[in-house]
Amino acid sequence: MRYLPLTPDDRRDMLAVIGATDIDSLFRDVPESARLAGPIDLPRHAGELEVERDLARLAARNRAAGAGPFFCGAGAYRHHVPASVDHLIQRSEFLTSYTPYQPEIAQGTLQSLFEFQTQVAVLTGLSVANASMYDGSTACAEAVMMAARVTRRKRAILSGGVHPHYDEAAHTLAHSAGIETVRLPAAIDDEAAVIEAIDADTACVVVQTPNLFGAVTDVTRIAEAARAAGALTVVVTTEAVAFGLLKSPGEMGADIAVAEGASIGVGLNFGGPYVGLFACREALVRQMPGRLAGETVDAAGDRGFVLTLSTREQHIRRDKATSNICTNSGLCALAFTIHLSLLGGTGLAKLARINHARARRLRDALIGIDGVEVLTPRFFNEFAVRLNADAAETVEALAARNILAGVPVSRLDPGAGMDDVLLVCATETTTDDDIAAFAGALAEELA
Amino acid sequence: MRYLPLTPDDRRDMLAVIGATDIDSLFRDVPESARLAGPIDLPRHAGELEVERDLARLAARNRAAGAGPFFCGAGAYRHHVPASVDHLIQRSEFLTSYTPYQPEIAQGTLQSLFEFQTQVAVLTGLSVANASMYDGSTACAEAVMMAARVTRRKRAILSGGVHPHYDEAAHTLAHSAGIETVRLPAAIDDEAAVIEAIDADTACVVVQTPNLFGAVTDVTRIAEAARAAGALTVVVTTEAVAFGLLKSPGEMGADIAVAEGASIGVGLNFGGPYVGLFACREALVRQMPGRLAGETVDAAGDRGFVLTLSTREQHIRRDKATSNICTNSGLCALAFTIHLSLLGGTGLAKLARINHARARRLRDALIGIDGVEVLTPRFFNEFAVRLNADAAETVEALAARNILAGVPVSRLDPGAGMDDVLLVCATETTTDDDIAAFAGALAEELA
Amino acid sequence: MSLARVGRPSRAETDTLQAPAASGHGLVQDEPLIFELGGWDKTGVDLPDETAPLDDLKGLTRAEALRLPGLSEPEAVRHYVRLSQKNHAIDLAIYPLGSCTMKHNPRLDEKVARFAGFADIHPLQPVSTVQGALALMNELACWLTTLTGMPAVALSPKAGAHGELCGLLAIRAAHEAKGDARKTVLVPTSAHGTNPATAALAGYGVVEIGQTDDGRVDLADLKAKLHDDVAAVMVTNPNTCGLFERDVLEIARLTHAAGAFFYCDGANFNAIVGRVRPGDLGVDAMHINLHKTFSTPHGGGGPGAGPVVLSQALAKHAPTPWLVSGPEGFSLLEHADGDAAAALGRMCAFHGQMGMYVRALAYMKSHGADGLRQVAEDAVLNANYIKARLGGALSVAYPEGPCMHEALFDDAWLEDTGIATLDFAKALIDEGFHPMTMYFPLVAHGAMLIEPTETESRRELDRFCDAVLRLAEAARAHDVERFKGAPFHAPLRRLDETLAARKPRLRWTPAENSSAD
Amino acid sequence: MSLARVGRPSRAETDTLQAPAASGHGLVQDEPLIFELGGWDKTGVDLPDETAPLDDLKGLTRAEALRLPGLSEPEAVRHYVRLSQKNHAIDLAIYPLGSCTMKHNPRLDEKVARFAGFADIHPLQPVSTVQGALALMNELACWLTTLTGMPAVALSPKAGAHGELCGLLAIRAAHEAKGDARKTVLVPTSAHGTNPATAALAGYGVVEIGQTDDGRVDLADLKAKLHDDVAAVMVTNPNTCGLFERDVLEIARLTHAAGAFFYCDGANFNAIVGRVRPGDLGVDAMHINLHKTFSTPHGGGGPGAGPVVLSQALAKHAPTPWLVSGPEGFSLLEHADGDAAAALGRMCAFHGQMGMYVRALAYMKSHGADGLRQVAEDAVLNANYIKARLGGALSVAYPEGPCMHEALFDDAWLEDTGIATLDFAKALIDEGFHPMTMYFPLVAHGAMLIEPTETESRRELDRFCDAVLRLAEAARAHDVERFKGAPFHAPLRRLDETLAARKPRLRWTPAENSSAD
Ligand SMILES: Cc1ncc(COP(=O)(O)O)c(C=O)c1O
Ligand SMILES: Cc1ncc(COP(=O)(O)O)c(C=O)c1O
């Protein structure tokens, strides 16, 4: 087998060195009843050519986003990633290294994580950021847990604009720890309701911007109300490109900002792997989950980086840790950092404006169609439309015409009573031809 | 522009350091009439996304070999290359390095070239091999020139089994140097005619095995006759996988062996880049063209490798050099070496036998079709068939059915009077389904 | 070493033309942070000049420009290539971290994961347009359940710890469904930190179980602590001492008898894959680190994937989404209702780590059932070979009997040398090797835990063992300087971790600010 | 240093278990040859067990098994990753080799070249199935002819030298067509070695033209040597001293007046692309190294591509294949008959370096006409900046006026230091930099030729200049040891090239044999 270097001779000689008669004798601690005599009933080994063909066949049964007009968003956004990003993250030294526990021979990973943390802190407008979470949704759930630890309160209020999957992930995690999560009814704008819901038991409010419906929200007033009540404000962002244009969470008074970073450097990947961004005010850092790279010096006085503040973490603090997270999303964080290092502040701002411009063009194309009502007044690159038909059925009909028309709200939140609402998104990858094809086909479907 | 690091400020400051008023002043040596005032009339710069889309559109207008049944050979063979090969040759340190003129910081390239030379020498059964030529055809042309230098004679005899492109490339090069190349009439087996043609003016005979028609030839008797006449024997191989199974050129008495190495590690690439293999007897090494890596020691006595015997080369010897070659095919040689290091002798032998087995299956499938006659008695993975129809037209008809049926001899050698002869090839990438589809469609076309 | 240097590059960097710039030597380049490369107005991405009015977003846009540097592509590529060369990696040499299963990462897996049909599909496309992706998930699930002998699997957890959480939440759901709100999870002392941390995160109290002298769960202690408030027993098997829990069947029996569930940490599945099915050991839930046993690359700390196989009793509590197969192909149950009404909820957005599924499946198909069995055998053989070669010089923590995939040593043999485990490990760097895991598991004093994996050749094992033995000799010869000062040959000398924690600098700040503190 | 060590690994390698194996330090691994890794019976490729009888091939198969080692994939990957780290590369730092144009290689170009529609097509597929590939070649041809202002281009030459050959053969064909068998080619002393070598290969006698004190072709000498036996004048412009041939129009006029053709070596086209069209300079033929100006990677010595643009007079002699466009799309004339009857023949099998065409076109489209013009400007600016910064310390070979893309220094300034150009260059390695081109062109004594290219940032230029200036100071301070012994910090110390040439060892041989010599 091509991945196994030992030859039969090696095995024989090594057994001799060990002083074992055969390989079975090394497994003698396994209860006899559980020792399998031979290979399990699964296919035998296969060459590269066969495996590649096999998987190519499966891949061919999916409609790639790039294979036609495409307007899906709702928490996962299609952006162009420069070829150099994917090349660099595949370098052996990044791809095949472990968590940087031995800093003297892991400065490549550590320095790039330090760069990542700084970039995330700047984007979110907060003081510190960690070295990544699994994704935006688990980062959000951890933020709720952290807020409960900080405030010693047990209730989180989630805006109705929060992505339903984020709400469910937070609920699932918080529930078992006895923390209640209250999601307000699905709404494009529920600032008043959120402020209303805050009380003395509130650990945090969780507000998303741009929210599920694409609506850009100024969180400032909510954050003020939360602060007044001794609660924290968690701002969620699922489209990291928006940081290039919109007010940062920190600017709006957030205590914790979490985001899905996959828009920058990572790609769609059918939902994973992604990369969770997690930032907070400096004062809260010791309650933060996840790894942190920090600056220090070596024995010769030269600057270097190490993993630090690990007394927060499971491998040191065990059941007193701030989280159980261990493996996180290092390589995606690296991809994020490289892509953002290429873009720079200037490039990200420009990219964000292009996204906004294309989404406006999409709106302008859809708004004139009979049976389409644009619901989101102020959006970044995504907005909700109400159709004169079932949104999920319309999406299926357009998929049959090779147009991926967006995400029906009913897929995410079947109870919201929004079966006729469709979320549509445009990015720099969306062309005018795509938009025209979509608008034309949609008009026909709805006619 | 994303590839240009200088900013406008940099440019201004640097001009100041230089003491130049503006960039135009640095071009003042260009005659005024030839200075263009502005950009040439070609498209302006474009982003990665646009360029990638543009080229993807062009790529989509080609029928990839892997997109259906495929039986083309005739000098270019489709084989599976392990993913690790392409990964490794894309490492910055290999991909973006120059010819290893500074050996202290080029041992990666030099050691792998030394490995390449050794592998080529072993494959060809000769003592020494160089660090690569452009491709098999130019290697063949250089072999003819070398034979003329060694023998001080001015005529080369080429078997009628030599690939017509190789013949033409050799003729083109030799002609201007006053060396005559005589190609015998196209023939599956012309051993007798070759021996017959050798005389006292013959610098070399050039024999290909497996030859254009796939015929495996024992060159021993030809080599004996050549030696007796003071001529050299050049053995050409266009399908390097055949080395895994067949007698090596050295075993058969060749003085020089040249081959196209693209079958191992490189891929089809529409004909280039490829990699020429060039090996010869030790005594001839100082007449060899191309670069050579050699072993030596460093100042501390540690083993290392350098480019050597460069007094043969253009950069030292100028118009007295053995060739004008400078840039050769280093990265393809590296790909060849990595692929062969994975295969090993065992793997290459096995691969060769699989190729032969599949070709036999292809023969067995075609032989029963009315209107098909198999012409090549002893073949490796390719053979010629005579059809009861024009081969080129049949190929076109099958291409319309998404089957790439092989190469008509008339495409390569329109004057051979073989318009009804088709060259077909099978490799480890050819499946039984491919063969069945081909046989079925061919039977219909010929019926 | 002055503290004032922290926060600034180790060599002077200025913007004036003639000042000496940072450099390097030989092939090694010093490399500043991206924030120190001066790219404040640059970008390495060409974008069309295209904007729209921002009237819709009045008051909602950034007040100030984003202060993030950009680099032209040549500069960015060079920056990260230079940084990369300061890393150790499995592609460079053995990476003998215990309990980490650092094995070869096939490039085939990277290639197939990048097929547009996998990498460029959206998680919320109509399922009719992603049937291949769902079929792949189904096939992966089939391999995982067959290899473990378990009836069900939840694919979505994003790493091992997330899988542990998923398993404990399923256990909680099962207890709650019976109205049985248990509060405690039992965890052995030798457990990985994620086990107690996960139990706490899942709202459980953690009680430690002791260990016997031969490195296994103390059955007597287990019995004593198993009562009707215990929701689950979490055992790693093979455990983090590299030993198979001989009494695993009894542990399972006792656990079940107490009405608790048996959670198995499957991080070390590599030792037994293809030879032992956890389902035959009475396990109720076990996570599988695809980034360990099934070789998806660690990537300097993730991403990974931690699918959890579940027993019949727990299967109905698996988190959404559920993958179901019907006459029209595959579909997804994405909400905890209908058939999935008992689901424990949702572990994360979307459907988990698709990119890792593709890689892991390519890896499994490549090995096949026969190859995977060989994986376990070679992994165990390699570990025992290391134990045999080093056993004479170092002190084996549990010398009796074979180990499984990793060999555990303690620091008894270093007594009187004045050299600590840490020093010894750092000295290995100077010999060209990455250190083993140190000071874990906690049950062995000054532990050194070595896991070679099956993808190390005998030649590499010998190179490694030779280096360890050379160093051990030096240690016995009291060549203390060689150890205390190590490493001397790495890109940096030993780093001051205490300073980093005492005065955390977690991001770059402009020099103006840094001079303030 | 004993000769007996040659042919064996630098550290002992044995097969016995306990012997000390080769090792490394820090992140650097020593690495033997593949032939010393013991893989004589191994393979790292899994192939189906499938054979057929060999009855057809009786007497034609190998007598003995192939003695080539194989490695499992993990071993092979590690071997080549380790080797790679012993290389300098443009992705690591400036690569200031003069006349080599080592510029950034965009990864986009690598990506698109690997599209199956380009990489996995066969050169002899029916042209109806490769219309996209032919369209790409046509588009590349259009860019090249437009940028050079020339009517035609032959794409197929495989590198610069091959392009030179193609150009001279076209010239020969043109003369022969007129029944005018000229025998001489004039080449300046400063020319690259390929120019005289090519002329000789093409059957011409080579006569050198002298050079003026300001580094240009000596017109008087040219005039003196131009007579009716001269087939061509071969001039590099900008020349290898980094200077533009001011009298190029006069050179062309004189050449044409003598009935000869004007061949321009276009290796240095990078200096003028987008700003000057060689067609406006009277050029008849010029090769373009796509691997220089258009950034296809050098790959440690190729592959490259050397298309040749041709004047009207030479166009009809272009080698086959010819690409022609018709109502049914593109087709190929592959034989020297019909319209292509005057073709000079064929330079190579098939259609040239498709893989390079794709990369070069992606590069051109990315830059566009505006970006390419900027390329030339920045390349020239960077070279002049280096000349300005180093001019005070080193001796500029031709100080008067600006240089183009490269700056040429001689060793006058090293006089009395006891340090040679070679030593100075090797000492640069210790500072982290690749040396410049040395001892070329021959017209400058102890030449040091520095070409930065446009993809170097000012920061990198300063780093480099600072290092050179530091070293220049050390040289003036007679710190001779630092130079004579250099490099000290590279993977190897200075290599003995004389030994290599005196006693060539050009392949590995088993130790048994090597002990014999
Ligand atoms: C025994 C054990 N359990 C659990 C984990 C946690 O897995 P992950 O890092 O994937 O979250 C690890 C990882 O190091 C481990 O070794
Ligand atoms: C001036 C000059 N001419 C010709 C060549 C030869 O080009 P190639 O190496 O592509 O054959 C070179 C390459 O170094 C060169 O610098």
Describe, in plain words, how this protein is organized in 3D.
The complex is a heterotetramer, with 2 copies of chain A (447 residues) and 2 copies of chain C (517 residues). Helices cover 38% and strands 13% of the residues of chain A. With 447 residues, chain A is of the alpha/beta class. In chain A, the strands form 3 sheets. Chain A has a 7-stranded mixed β-sheet, with helices on both faces. Chain A has a 4-stranded antiparallel β-sheet with strand order 10-11-13-12. In chain A, strands 8-9 form a two-stranded antiparallel sheet. Chain A is globular, with a radius of gyration of 25 Å. The model of chain A has no long low-confidence stretch (mean pLDDT 97). Chain C is α/β, with parallel strands linked by helices and 517 residues long. Chain C has helices at 73-84, 107-113, 116-119, 131-148, 160-177, 194-201, 219-225, 248-257, 312-315, 354-391, 421-430, 458-476, 480-484, 497-502, 511-514; strands at 24-25, 28-29, 152-154, 184-188, 205-209, 230-236, 261-265, 285-287, 308-310, 322-326, 329-333, 395-396, 407-410, 437-438, 448-450. In chain C, the strands form 4 sheets. Chain C has a 7-stranded mixed β-sheet, with helices on both faces. In chain C, strands 12-13-15-14 form a 4-stranded antiparallel β-sheet. In chain C, strands 1-2 form a two-stranded antiparallel sheet. The longest helix of chain C is centred in the C-terminal third of the chain and has 38 residues, at 354-391. Mean pLDDT of chain C is 93; it is low at 1-22 and 513-517. Chains in contact: A-B, A-C, A-D, B-C, B-D, C-D. At the A-C interface, helix 1, helix 2, helix 3, helix 4 and helix 5 of A face helix 1, helix 2, helix 3, helix 4 and helix 5 of C. One pyridoxal-5'-phosphate binds at residues 99-100, 159-161, 192, 194, 236, 240, 265, 267, 289, 304, 306 of chain C. One pyridoxal-5'-phosphate (PLP) is lined by residues 99-100, 159-161, 192, 194, 236, 240, 265, 267, 289, 304, 306 of chain D.
